[in-house]
Specification:
By secondary structure, the protein is an alpha+beta fold. It has helices at 17-35, 95-104, 117-124, 134-137, 158-165, 185-206, 217-232, 236-252; strands at 45-49, 55-58, 74-77, 110-114, 143-146, 170-173, 177-182. The two termini are 14 Å apart.
Length: 254
């Protein structure tokens, strides 16, 4: 699905320019997750809050990620009720997680949930993420862990998930997958990319005989702090996100 700037010509009249720009960026994010092979067929979610509201955009259930478009994204409230009519429904398994976090964390405007193989493997390990590699060090002190309670369908789990997340931006769902949240879509995508790389390296290192070189906690603290500052105080994440979109379009054009 090509989402070049010409897609703006397809904007419905009732949607503001600001909302349409968010829809285009969120559709790009869905396509990038598909491009990198991080999808779980039609499952999982990426949600983006509409600024100044308790509404968020999410994928229509039943579509592949590469079939998501700016126009077919659903607008829902924190309980998952559709705000505008759509021939599609949303996957109720996402409301407990996404609705809880959007409803409680004003600093999280985009939330991404995945079950990639490396991330799900790490989620099964009692120790969770290692902080002894370049990417894992950037996650030091930034990861919360939530005990698996089954498929996330039930409202009574919300306060426990929020307690597990605390003030962090990464939530490992034990025996399941991960959710990452940030203040906008590019920052959330970059955080997911960092978590994915950390998981891939940890899984690969675990398959090689011999001890790993452990990093001191002070190094992890420094790496995590510097990465968080870089993401929050510059256009770095947006540059990264836009570069990945260009790469995706270029490779799919051939």
């Amino acid at each position: 699905m090509d989402l070049t700037p010409n897609a703006a010509e397809l904007k419905p009249a009732h949607i503001s320019d600001a909302e349409w720009a968010l829809r285009v960026q969120l559709a790009h994010c869905y396509h990038l997750v598909d491009f990198f092979g991080w999808t779980e067929t039609i499952f999982n979610h990426i949600s983006a809050r509409l600024p100044g509201t308790d509404h968020y955009l999410v994928n229509p259930f039943g579509l592949n990620y590469d079939e998501v478009t700016p126009a077919n994204l659903l607008k829902v409230d924190i309980d998952g009720h559709k705000i505008e009519p759509s021939p599609y429904d949303a996957n109720p398994a996402g409301f407990a997680l996404h609705g809880a976090i959007h409803g409680a964390r004003e600093d999280i405007h985009c939330l991404i949930h995945t079950h990639t193989t490396p991330i799900s493997a790490i989620a099964m390990k009692r120790a969770g993420f290692s902080h002894d590699d370049f990417y894992g060090a950037q996650l030091y002190g930034r990861v919360g862990y939530h005990t698996f309670e089954g498929i996330t369908l039930f409202a009574d789990e919300k306060p426990r998930m929020l307690a597990s997340l605390g003030e962090k931006h990464i939530l490992v769902l034990r025996n399941h997958g991960i959710a990452v949240g940030e203040m906008d879509i590019p920052r959330a995508f970059f955080l997911l990319w960092t978590v994915q790389r950390a998981a891939e390296i940890q899984v690969a290192a675990g398959s090689i005989p011999g001890d790993n070189v452990a990093l001191p906690d002070a190094i992890g603290e420094r790496c995590a702090h510097l990465t968080a500052e870089l993401i929050r105080d510059s256009g770095f994440a947006e540059k990264f996100f836009n570069a990945m979109v260009r790469q995706m379009h270029a490779k799919r054009a051939h």
